[in-house]
């Protein structure tokens, strides 16, 4: 006798749980029970679980009876001729959906040849173990699991055409690749996903070799001529919006060119691009701190005493300016109203982004790297036929990561580029390496994909043959222009008097010992001053009681609040954060004492 639970609620018992589960499954297959029902038996606890809850992950499998797949060759032919469809297969009890609990009672075969009498289900195809994005990685059965995860994540970060109506939208952090291409090496998912409508990468000519040490670790080297011809160029869009808010007392924000009397008025140079209505004109070239939308706000505090004063009637400057470290062109201006009926002005700034040192690139196999050098075409290595690569990839990235799929795509891409065909690289069903080698030989190249190359600088022939081919490379959204961050001195926190945090706010950088050593070697004195002296403060300490003293500016002498003025009081340098700690300890009614002694 076994307990039965429906959606984790106890409903009763059954005498023979195995027979009960079998009967329920047969009823479900005959459509007498809901198709969303899953049933399983746990023999350890002697319990039957029936699941009907929403949000379960379920997957389709072919039903197997007496070691025979229910999906016969006749049915496959009917599917091809479109006499049958997917829904018919489910209705006729050929395919069913299993969830995690029912899978525990199933014995699933990967391929038809391995079917036995014990098997209950058959996988539709081994590739179904992968998700949508992961199944877009070519030859992925030759790569490790961790690389597949990284490859699928990297594809989501690549630049392409994310939406056809991008010019009509005000998306934050939008990037558009100028000349996206369809990959030479594709999988079946590219067709299902309709990848040619929204491609996100380009076919690069690649050479696997070292070049003067500039592609050490995870760096790559790019050909400057390729960039000049439009390789990996993209545009970055950033929207800015200003709203005319309403405040109590009938006061409102106003969009317009601020008056010189306005509190916090910027220089005339900052407002030079604004038109009469206070909004910048389209296609204006803007730099950091240039005003995009001129705006003034009413005074912040209206007290009873200030109502008649001049200061109370002075409006505040609250214009929208281009972010620190950014520049570009005004792409679009929109004037509309928001849900509350307030006037809303939106400006989108367009910045062209050409590849530069520090920009991140990756193949689809998790082989990511940043540009270490842009090499003039005259200095690039070239093959006997005069081909120069777009990108030079370090061979040291292969042995440790074991991305054989990376090497295979390079070979397949070469065959596809030379023959003018797309190559099928679907997982478990790709064009085999032997066939690629044969085709390459027929096309007049070495079957192993290597070529004789010459040093572009000296003209000498390289002793080693270089592995070259074509590969689909992705430009990722992590560009150096979005991450570069430096400062000498600037804003500090009110409480600790240390530099504020964050790149967007113009904050400082945290430096460790090693960074400090680099700055000492460079002689970057101002930055070192910021690093060590940013919150330097001088406090007076009483020699007698060890507590903080004060400086009496009337008498022009220091005095201790406890011991008076007739004691030794010394000025002591310390960080403001330390002084703050002493003050906080005092607030707990604990008296900290500083014991002084001579430096020398």
Give a written overview of the molecule.
The chain has 600 residues and is of the alpha+beta class. It has five domains: 2-129, no CATH class; 136-166 and 174-232 and 358-475, DNA-directed RNA polymerase, subunit 2, domain 6 (Dna-directed Rna Polymerase Ii 140kd Polypeptide, Chain: B, Domain 6), CATH 2.40.270; 235-353, OB fold (Dihydrolipoamide Acetyltransferase, E2P) (Beta Barrel), CATH 2.40.50; 485-533, no CATH class; 536-586, RNA polymerase alpha subunit dimerisation domain (DCoH-like), CATH 3.90.1800. It is 19% helix and 26% strand. The chain has 13 helices and 34 strands. The strands form ten sheets. The chain has a six-stranded mixed beta barrel. Strands 5, 6, 7, 8 and 9 form a five-stranded mixed sheet that branches. A five-stranded antiparallel sheet has the order 10-14-22-21-16, with no helix packed on it. A hairpin with a 2-residue loop joins strand 5 and strand 6. Helix 8 (404-419) packs parallel to helix 9. The longest helix has 16 residues, at 404-419. The N and C termini lie far apart (89 Å). The mean pLDDT is 91.
């Amino acid at each position: 006798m076994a307990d039965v639970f429906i959606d984790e609620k106890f409903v009763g018992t059954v005498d023979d749980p195995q027979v009960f589960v079998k009967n329920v499954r047969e009823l479900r297959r005959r459509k007498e029970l809901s198709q969303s029902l899953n049933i399983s038996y746990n023999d350890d606890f002697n319990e039957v679980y029936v699941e009907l809850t929403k949000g379960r992950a379920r997957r389709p499998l072919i039903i197997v009876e007496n070691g025979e797949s229910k999906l016969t060759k006749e049915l496959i032919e009917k599917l091809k001729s479109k006499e049958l469809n997917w829904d018919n297969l489910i209705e006729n009890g050929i395919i069913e959906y299993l969830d995690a609990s029912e899978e525990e009672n199933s014995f699933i075969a990967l391929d038809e040849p391995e079917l036995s009498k014990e098997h209950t289900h058959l996988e539709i195809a081994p590739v179904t173990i992968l998700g949508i994005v992961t199944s877009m990685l070519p030859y992925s059965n030759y790569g490790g699991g961790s690389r597949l995860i990284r490859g699928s994540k990297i594809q989501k970060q690549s630049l392409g055409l994310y939406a056809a109506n991008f010019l009509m939208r005000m998306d934050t952090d939008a990037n558009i690749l100028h000349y996206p291409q369809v990959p030479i090496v594709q999988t079946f998912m590219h067709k299902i996903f309709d990848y040619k409508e929204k491609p996100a990468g380009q076919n690069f000519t690649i050479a696997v070799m070292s070049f003067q040490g500039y592609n050490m670790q995870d760096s790559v080297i790019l050909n400057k001529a390729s960039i000049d011809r439009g390789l990996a160029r993209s545009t970055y869009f950033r929207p800015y919006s200003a709203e005319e808010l309403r405040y109590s007392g009938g006061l409102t924000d106003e969009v317009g060119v601020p008056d010189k009397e306005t509190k916090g008025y910027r220089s005339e140079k900052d407002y030079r691009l604004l038109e009469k209505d206070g909004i910048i004109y389209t296609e204006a070239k803007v730099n950091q701190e240039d005003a995009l939308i001129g705006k003034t706000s009413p005074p912040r505090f209206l007290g009873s005493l200030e109502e008649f004063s001049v200061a109370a009637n002075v409006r505040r400057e609250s214009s929208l300016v281009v972010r620190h470290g950014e520049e570009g062109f005004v792409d679009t201006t929109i004037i509309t109203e928001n849900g509350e009926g307030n006037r809303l002005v939106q400006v989108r700034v367009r910045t062209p982004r050409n590849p530069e040192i520090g920009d991140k690139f990756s193949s689809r196999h998790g082989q990511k790297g940043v540009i270490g050098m842009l090499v003039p075409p005259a200095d690039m290595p070239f093959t006997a036929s005069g081909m120069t690569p777009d990108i030079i990839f370090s061979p040291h990235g292969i042995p440790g990561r074991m991305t054989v799929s990376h090497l295979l795509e390079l070979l397949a891409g070469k065959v596809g580029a030379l023959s003018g065909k797309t190559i099928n690289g679907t997982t478990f069903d790709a064009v085999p390496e032997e066939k690629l080698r044969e085709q390459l030989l027929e096309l007049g190249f070495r079957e192993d994909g290597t070529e004789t190359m010459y040093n572009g600088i000296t003209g000498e022939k390289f002793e080693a043959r270089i592995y070259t081919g074509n590969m689909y490379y992705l430009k990722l959204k992590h560009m150096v222009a979005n991450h570069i961050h430096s400062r000498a001195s600037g804003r500090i926190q009110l409480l600790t008097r240390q530099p504020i945090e964050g790149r967007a706010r113009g904050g400082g950088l945290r430096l460790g010992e090693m960074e400090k050593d680099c700055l000492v070697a460079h002689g970057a004195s101002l930055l070192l001053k910021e690093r060590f002296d940013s919150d330097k403060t001088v406090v007076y300490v009483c020699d007698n009681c060890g507590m903080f003293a004060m400086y009496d500016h009337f008498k022009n002498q220091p005095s201790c609040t406890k011991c008076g003025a007739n004691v030794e009081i010394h000025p002591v340098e310390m960080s403001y954060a330390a002084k703050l700690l002493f003050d906080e300890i005092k607030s707990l009614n604990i008296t900290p004492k500083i014991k002084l002694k001579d430096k020398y």
